[in-house]
Amino acid sequence: MARITAGVGSSHVPAIGVAMDTGKTGEPYWQPVFAGYEASRAWMKEQDPDVIFLVYNDHCTAFSAEVIPTFALGCAAEFEPADEGWGPRPVPVVKGHPKLASHIAQSVILDEFDLTIMNQMEVDHGLTVPLSLMYGEVDAWPAQVIPLCVNVVQYPPPTGNRCYNLGKAVRKAFESYEDDLKVVVFGTGGMSHQLQAQRAGLINPEFDTRFLDLLTEDPVAGSQISHVEYLRESGSEGIEMVMWYVMRGALNDNVREVHRHYHIPASNTAVGHIILENV
Questions:
Q1: By CB distance 3.0 to 4.6 Å, which of 45, 54, 176, 246 could disulfide with 186?
Q2: Is the CB of residue 142 less than 8 Å from the CB of residue 95?
Q3: C-alpha separations of 1 from 62, 93, 152 in Å
Q4: Exactly one of 12, 97, 193, 261 is catalytic; which is it?
């Protein structure tokens, strides 16, 4: 069967991708951000997964305001990096796993989770930045990637509890797949930040730290954080953190935290990162 061995949580700040693409990672402003991923890249190389199941949100590139699915599963053979207004990032094309993605779709939909099946989809910084952070600059991504795009742009987004239970359904789907594959699940987005209005620039390290603690120690409690609490404590864009709970639900109840990184600021947000291994 396909085996989920670990989960990765990471911010997907677009400016991080720009810093990597323009050779600025060693500059004083950016160096502390990337230093926190050095151990992660060594860990990723050692893990060497066959497949990455990557949960992220689109930023109005693959989807416009006309059609915004709550959960969209990428079932294509490949996914081109999107042009977000200044050209596509100079990163490899993302190679999918259509057979496994179709199996996940069947299993999860029959488990009564409604998914939109995407047979063609461009992917933006929400997906490519976490890959770059964990792999560095590569000629080809070392693993096949199955994207799951979650709506956290148009109200109402799914709850953390819904995402947590979806993660459990995804784990069940992997465990019923016939091929022997090693899988790492990514949950991306956040952490606390707000991009507009009177609270623009909001960052809440206390909330972010509690979120990371609960992710490891008490995911059931963390999955019950409400939309209102995310909005009040982590800003209008902090709701992206519900996507980390798809990752957490896909893991075992008991996990081992092997790495954590938190840094303020990167662009206008906090950068959060965690690696959890199944025990």
A1: 54
A2: no
A3: 32, 27, 32
A4: 193
Rounded distance between C-alpha atoms, residue 2 and residue 16, angstroms: 32
The pTM (predicted TM-score) of the whole model is 0.97
Peptide bond into 157 cis (omega under 30): no
The count of structural domains within the chain is 1
Q: What are phi and psi of 128, to 5 degrees?
A: -75, -30
Query: Which range of residues forms the domain containing residue 65?
Result: 2-278
Active-site annotation holds for 125: yes
Quote the CA–CA distance of 227 and 229 in Å, as a whole number: 5
Rounded Cα–Cα distance for residues 206 and 19 (Å): 27
Distance in angstroms (rounded) separating the CA atoms of residues 198 and 221: 30
pLDDT tens digits along 180-223: 999 999 999 999 999 989 999 999 999 999 999 999 999 999 99
* Residue 272: closest CA among 40, 22, 23: 40
Closest to 165 (Cα-Cα) out of 86, 249, 233, 62: 249
193 is a catalytic site residue: yes
What residues have CB less than 8 Å from 7, skipping those under 6 apart?
184, 185, 186, 187, 247, 248, 250, 251, 255, 275, 276
Radius of gyration of the chain (CA): 17
In whole angstroms, what is the distance from residue 148 CA to residue 91 CA?
19
Which residue of the set 125, 227, 261, 273 is catalytic?
A: 125
Strand partners, 120: none
Give the CATH number of the domain where residue 142 resides: 3.40.830.10
Query: What count of other Cβ atoms lies within 10 Å of the Cβ of residue 229?
Result: 13
Spatial separation of the C-alpha atoms in residues 270 and 277, rounded to whole Å: 23
